[in-house]
Amino acid sequence: MADPVRPTVLTPYLVGDRIKLKKKHACGGLDWEVYRIGADLGLLCQTCGRRIMLSRREVARRIRRRVKTPGGE
Ligand SMILES: [Zn+2]
User: Fold this and answer.
1) Which DSSP helix (H) or strand (E) runs through 57?
2) Distance from residue 39's CA to the centre of ligand 1 (Å)
3) Is residue 52 a part of any domain in this protein?
4) Cβ(67)–Cβ(21) under 8 Å?
5) Which pLDDT score, from 0 to 100, does residue 69 have?
6) Does residue 32 lie in a domain region?
7) How far is the CA of 71 from the centre of ligand 1 (A)?
8) Ligand 1 centre and the CA of 18: distance in Å?
9) How many angstroms separate the CA atoms of 10 and 56, rounded?
10) What's the pLDDT at 12?
11) What does pTM read for this prediction?
């Protein structure tokens, strides 16, 4: 939050971000919440609660849009 914004071609995801992917999960859900940040992003399916890990590149390829975090700017 207090971190300076670093110029990057990759979207700087934050824990708690909600994102929508193009491809449906096995359960039919499209909405995910970022629960872990690292070399890979940990995503929690908002529909069935399952967790997956995706590389940032995969997320960038599959994302439809980023949903603002409730309470965020
Ligand atoms: Zn699911």
Assistant:
1) helix 56-62
2) 22
3) yes
4) no
5) 67
6) yes
7) 24
8) 14
9) 8
10) 80
11) 0.77
Q: How far apart are CA 7 and CA 33, in angstroms?
A: 23
Protein residues within 5 Å, CB atom, of ion ligand 1 = 25, 27, 29, 45, 47-48
Angstrom distance (rounded) from CA 26 to CA 47: 10
Domain that holds residue 36: 18-67
Predicted pLDDT at 20: 95
Is residue 63 assigned to a domain?
Answer: yes
Type of residue numbered 49: G
Distance 20 CA to ligand 1 centre (A): 12
How many A from CA of 72 to the centre of ligand 1?
24
Note the pLDDT tens digit of each residue in 8-57: 455 688 899 999 999 899 999 999 999 999 989 999 999 999 999 999 99
Q: How far is the CA of 60 from the centre of ligand 1 (A)?
A: 19
User: In this structure, is residue 38 part of a structural domain?
Assistant: yes
